[in-house]
């Protein structure tokens, strides 16, 4: 057994450098000076007797073994953090810090409704929110940067547990007079693929919308890609095409002061599942289920 072991601080420096690829930015993320971070990494390399990082003026390049050790260090840091989670879980539920990721097609529409209710119900909870696309949020969850994620399913997010909160119906949004008729909804076959506007890649709502329509050719034929639902609504309002919107965005008033009309999508599976997800085996599982109940009631 080695007499000396790496410290958690040294491992934190190593993981930060791996994440940021730059000594200055890694030091800022660790709230230390660059010289302190560099010295800590040199001590780590001296301790284990190998070079982890090749240093040049322009590039930070990890050695193959350095990459493997950084990945292991990330797991060690996450396990160390969960020691504190165990203590918190045994104490007062939903108190202290909790880092929750929220995807962009949920955050601006649901959070204003639920946050005041959460603050009222759980005044000791310090909720730190981070808005990321689904893939980035899942990656942050497994890296230990987030404790849980509010997202839309189905989506492959890795080894997680999740609780469904509610269904969010999809609607077809179009300029006034373009697709209006006596039918209460719009079937997917009535959508003109040459006028379909979708979110850019990285937003799972795009995949949910296409899956609900069950028309694979729409992915290739989509006329334009938007960076947000608000951008898509402005495109539709200017006559550039039609798009698909979730009910929560409509409830939040996304179509106010526009000449855009929305009708329910008439399909076999016309909704996405809004869920709360966390790492499988997390010691805070009971807390997350309690939070899921609170989110469901607040919605």
Would you mind describing this structure in some detail?
It is a single chain. The chain is an alpha/beta fold. The protein is 44% helix and 23% strand. Strands 3, 4, 5, 6, 7, 10, 11 and 12 form an eight-stranded mixed sheet that branches. Strands 1-2 form a two-stranded antiparallel ribbon. β3 (96-102), α5 and β4 form a beta-alpha-beta unit.
Report the portion of residues in β strands.
Answer: 15-25%
CATH topology value of the largest domain: D-Maltodextrin-Binding Protein, domain 2
Average of per-residue pLDDT values: 86
The number of distinct β-strands equals 12
Overall CATH class of the largest domain: Alpha Beta
Distance between the termini: 54 Å
Number of helices: 11
Number of separate structural domains: 2
The major beta sheet can be summarized as: 8 strands, mixed
Residue runs with pLDDT of under 50 for 5 or more positions: none
Shape from CA axes?
elongated
How does CATH name the architecture of the largest domain?
3-Layer(aba) Sandwich
Which structural class best describes the helix and strand composition?
alpha/beta
H and E string: HHHEEHEHEHEEEEHHEHEHEEH
Please give the radius of gyration in angstroms: 23 Å
């Amino acid at each position: 057994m080695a007499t000396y072991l790496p410290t958690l601080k040294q491992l934190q420096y190593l993981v930060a450098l791996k994440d940021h690829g730059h000594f200055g930015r890694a030091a800022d993320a660790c709230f230390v000076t660059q010289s302190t971070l560099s010295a800590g990494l040199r001590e780590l390399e001296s301790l284990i007797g190998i070079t982890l990082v090749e240093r040049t003026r322009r590039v930070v390049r990890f050695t193959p073994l350095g990459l493997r050790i950084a990945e292991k260090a990330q797991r060690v840091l996450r396990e160390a953090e969960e020691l504190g989670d165990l203590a918190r879980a045994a104490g007062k539920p939903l108190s202290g810090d909790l880092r929750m990721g929220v995807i962009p097609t949920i955050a601006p529409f649901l959070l204003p409704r639920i946050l005041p209710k959460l603050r009222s119900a759980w005044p000791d909870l310090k909720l730190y929110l981070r808005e990321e696309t689904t893939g980035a949020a899942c990656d942050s969850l497994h890296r230990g940067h987030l404790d849980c994620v509010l997202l839309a399913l189905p989506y492959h997010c890795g080894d997680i547990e999740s609780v469904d909160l509610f269904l969010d119906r999809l609607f077809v949004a179009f300029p006034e007079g373009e697709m209006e008729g006596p039918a209460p909804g719009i079937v997917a076959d009535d959508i003109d693929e040459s006028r379909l506007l979708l979110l850019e890649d990285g937003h799972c709502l795009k995949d949910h919308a296409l899956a609900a329509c069950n028309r694979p050719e729409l992915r290739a034929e989509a006329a334009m890609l938007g960076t947000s639902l608000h951008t898509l609504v402005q495109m539709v309002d200017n006559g550039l095409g039609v798009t698909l919107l979730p009910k929560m965005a409509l409830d939040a008033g996304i179509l106010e002061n526009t000449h855009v009309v929305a009708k329910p999508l008439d399909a076999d599976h016309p909704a996405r599942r809004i869920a709360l997800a966390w790492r499988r085996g997390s010691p805070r599982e009971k807390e997350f289920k309690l939070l899921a109940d609170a989110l469901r009631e607040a919605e």
